[in-house]
Amino acid sequence: xxxxxxxxxxxxxDFANFGAEIRAIEAQGADWxxxxxxxxxxxxxxxxxxxxxKAFRRHVTTVMDVHLMIAxxxxxxxxxxxxxxxxxxAHVEAGPHIHRTLQAIRGAGMKxxxxxxxxxxxxxxxHLLDLADLVCVMTVNPGFGGQKFxxxxxxxxxxRAMIGDRPVHIEIDGxxxxxxxxxxxxxxxxxxxxxxxxxxxxxxxxxxxxGDNIRAI
Length: 217
Ligand code: DX5
Ligand code: ZN
Hints:
It catalyses: D-ribulose 5-phosphate = D-xylulose 5-phosphate. The chain is of the alpha/beta class. The protein contains eight helices and eight strands. It has a single domain, classed as TIM Barrel (Alpha-Beta Barrel), CATH 3.20.20.70. 30% of the residues lie in helices and 19% in strands. Strands 1-8-7-6-5-4-3-2 form an eight-stranded parallel β-sheet. It binds D-xylitol-5-phosphate (DX5) and zinc ion. D-xylitol-5-phosphate binds next to β2, β8 and α7.
């Protein structure tokens, strides 16, 4: 289904070759580039911060979709705007004032996303849907690539109904592969993040494998 966007997560890329990896996935059909920011506090893993994201920006020609798995979020929003994020997604679990956070993300000139951990119900975003451009439904507990898909199709269906005719994307993040993708698309998702399923078996020297993997999703 070509209306569904594929957003490869560079969490599964070669960390010594981000520029080449980003160029390779875009050349092979990636719609967005998904950047997983982890702080070793909100999630038990540490990746990169604003200076690295700013460096990625020089290679991204599509949409840079930045997923913050950090707490607190608000003190960093201007830095991610300055780094060139197109979409900035914060977790509803990251603090008591997600409403303010989404306002601040839009106020800084970015599209705003709100992410839900698997244990958080759809209703947590019921009063945020006019402030968000994207709802990210986590289908793993965040922190690591390559984890097993957790079925959240009921949550996706509930969210699609709650969203109604608002222009809000439903993004799925975690364990997306050719087997799980159709389940969430049927439930109403329109953006699929995929890390290990895109990068597995490929390399910057043989990028067509990335293309085959993207097309298989
Ligand atoms: C999980 C990250 C995901 C992750 C997805 O904490 O937010 O974006 O990279 O990786 P896969 O597709 O391998 O589950
Ligand atoms: Zn992510």
